[in-house]
Amino acid sequence: MDPLAQFEALTEWLRGALAAGEDFCLGYSAESSEFIRFNQARVRQAGQVQQASLSLRLIRDGRHAELQLSLGATPEEDRRRLADALDQLRQLLPMLAADPYLQFNRDAWRSQVVQLEPLPDSAALVEQIGREAGDLDLVGFYAAGPLSRGFASSAGAFGWHQASSFNFDWSLFHANGQALKAQYAGQRWDAEALARRLAQGREQLAYLGRPVCTLQPGTYRAYLAPAALQEILELLGWGGFSARALAEKDCPLQRLHSGEARLSPLLHLQEQVTGALTPGFFDEGYPRRDLELIRAGRPGEPLVSARSAAEYGLPANGASAWESPESLAMAGGELTQDEILARLGTGLYIGNLWYLNYSDRPAARITGMTRFACFWVEDGHIQAPLASMRFDDSLYRLLGSQLESLTRERELSLSTRTYRERHNGSSLLPGALLGQLSLTL
What we know:
single chain; alpha+beta; PmbA/TldD fold; 23% helix
């Protein structure tokens, strides 16, 4: 059954089954996904997943409860499961206390976005990977297919978002155990783009065969590839742009909002809803819109969920309950790809970071380790792979005083999470050239 028709039919049934004084929020999630797992550049496992589920929230007299259910193969079975869920929630609600921060959106908004692009033929994809990386120890995971998301409420709101995408996430291993990691993701497959990324990986893999360079603790010039910058921004996303965290004085960028600290004027961060793979709504019932989170180094709008809006008297802007970016985009700069090593001169080329955490949250100080494809560079030339090192530095330096330039080209990264279902979070980021990065051990 067509996902949109399935969701519309269930929504209409639920409207008719509602009793006086009841309201509902209904979320829909479906996927038709293809998965291919590679080892040594050969297919080791392949399969397909088709599934759909609902999230039903029933509201009455300030009380609310939610239940999730999987959908079956027939409309009759789906209606029966939804009816059972409605009955369970009706029995549960009288036993719950009223929620003082419940905020139900009574606007009858409508939104419909369909971005179904042709996806690559899996046989041709496997053939290309085998042809261009068959002699390499490539371990990877390919996921592709359309994702469907829907929202409806008793107030008349209705949102629909359907988009196809692909995501090929892989690692290349050297015989000595060193490795590098890469990703190619998007909506329109470009065989030449994959070929370029595999060629770059092959070139970096050759450098991994050289003796490892171990540096002394200190400050070094550094280039952060988009994947490394993504790790930093993912950590910052947990509370860094949250209205709740700001109100509770738990935001790592609290000093930025109070005017005590600054970020670089080169820094422009946006929650980009327009054209994104994430839907323009969440299950809380408020439409999303493009938000400037950081504007030329200065604070913009925070992400405000419905609950934070009720609790702190703020206008909700469609943020999820956890108030983290879902489709983050950073503006690029003037640095071109072929200038990176020359502009870096002598310092660190950092392909990936991991194990990031806050070492001093109020001061926006973070720590983590270098990971895959990190190199020591001298006079604009890669000399050796870098031994794993720990850094500890402030975001007000990394994204502030020490941010020299951003690359013109930006890299799209899609979420690799597949727990329960494929996720559709994304980031579009440049690389970043830093004057200093502090290594501690």
